[in-house]
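User: I'm designing a mutation panel for THUM3 protein and want to avoid disrupting the core. Could you give me a predicted structure to guide residue selection? Please restate the sequence first so the numbering is unambiguous.

Assistant: Good idea. Sequence first, for numbering, then the predicted structure tokens:
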Amino acid sequence: GGRSPALPRQPGMAEPEAAGDAGGGPTPAQGGAELAAVIGATVPTGFEQTAAEEVREKLGSASRISRDRGKIYFEVPARSLPQVHRLRSVDNLFVVVQEFKDYQFKENKEDALKDLEDLVKKLPWTDPLKVWELNNSLKKKKTKRKKHNLQSPASREKLNGGGEERGADQNNTNDQEDCAQNPVAVEPTGGQDTEKPQGVTSRNGVEEEEDNEQSDVKVEVQASSESGTKAGDSQTGEGEAKLLRFRVTCNRAGDKHSFSSNEAARDFGGAVQEHFQWKADMTNFDVEVLLNIHNNEVVVGIALTEESLHRRNITHFGPTTLRSTLAYGMLRLCDPQPTDIIVDPMCGTGAIPIEGAAEWPYCYHIAGDNSPQAVKRAANNICSLLRKNESKDSSTALGIPLDIIQWDICNLPLRTGSVDVVVTDMPFGKRIGSKKKNWDLYPACLMEMGRICTPGTGRAVLLTQDKKCFAKALSRVGHIWRRAQTVWVNVGGLHAAVYLLRRTWERAEERRSFW
């Protein structure tokens, strides 16, 4: 849950941000006043606080952490949009049109939906649409530069933002209570944030989300043509020549609603179409209107990212590529200091060390894996990053302090006590390896990590889904590692935990040499 941080003002800043506390959007721009935006950002569940700290550090804005996990809100002047897009801890961004802290839904379904339709005419769309336009002009500049990077798989994956890290073996298409009884195309849930627990038990009995009332359906509205285009009455002063295409995406969570997210998206979308005279189009849209309903909290927004920012560094995906936003959150937990040596002994495609080298260039990042394919993919990702760096400005382009090695996780070729930080995504047993193997692997890994880490100051941040096995392994190495913090996260619909461990002063066993 989020406290609204009453943080000290930073010098040289304008009046305090009332980050939409009144439940409205930003204050409208009075004559010549600067355009402001309340930005909503989806972040990996469990790392809301991390994201808020990053926003404070890089933008100077205070954030509110939503009661709906995995989201934060902050206000910025619209001119800061480029910096907002450079945040490392956020997956998707949207501009808030309006927020209702305590929206009263009518009991009766028809009435509740009618209220949502009526809402469209009352919402303060003008400034958020200006922010959306500004955001588009920034995006256009960017795509001109990006043309040469063609091998990116992102285009294939555009709509299933983040699906890459659910191995194909478990595509988690939940049977929602409300699939498509209307002319509506429904995608598998979680198109927006795979990180969000898909808390409806699907046929194969995936575990229930803690508040078992999640019903997120990605919905596109195909508004029927009867709604009659009255071209004259509603160009809303934008004077746009180009007919805009739009879709509505509704995420609903809570068990008190009489309607489904499909129905909400359909009716709200019909009203949006009538109000703006836009054309509904689910795949080829210009504007994505978001309707987020979480119990009695309703937030209407306009999307500012088409595909999640979390794929920014990776071009060669493996079966379990970790989202860079989650990698960033994990790295931040271990508070890297300049000249720290940071090791990822099971690096897979290299998401963690690549994120680390990009954000903490004054540390030395060493990545390794026992799988030759993984090492090859990681090396390819590093090469893409180097190329990207060179194309910027060769005179100032720094090298990337990152090495990749194939090794055996239980016998690392590193000197005892020579490493400051270990950060890794432990094998899950779901996608790679098996739980059986984890029982032997985990204690051996923790011992070896303990050996290479500096006693007293060394720390490890480890992500795992096999929590039982991890706890057991940790109890066996309690003399060298103590647990300092646990963050519960969701990875592609699987419940997982990130543990921050601190190295005790205890000397680790030296590895005996065998000759």
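For picking mutation sites, this is relevant: The radius of gyration is 24 Å. The domain at 324-503 is CATH 3.40.50.150 (Rossmann fold).
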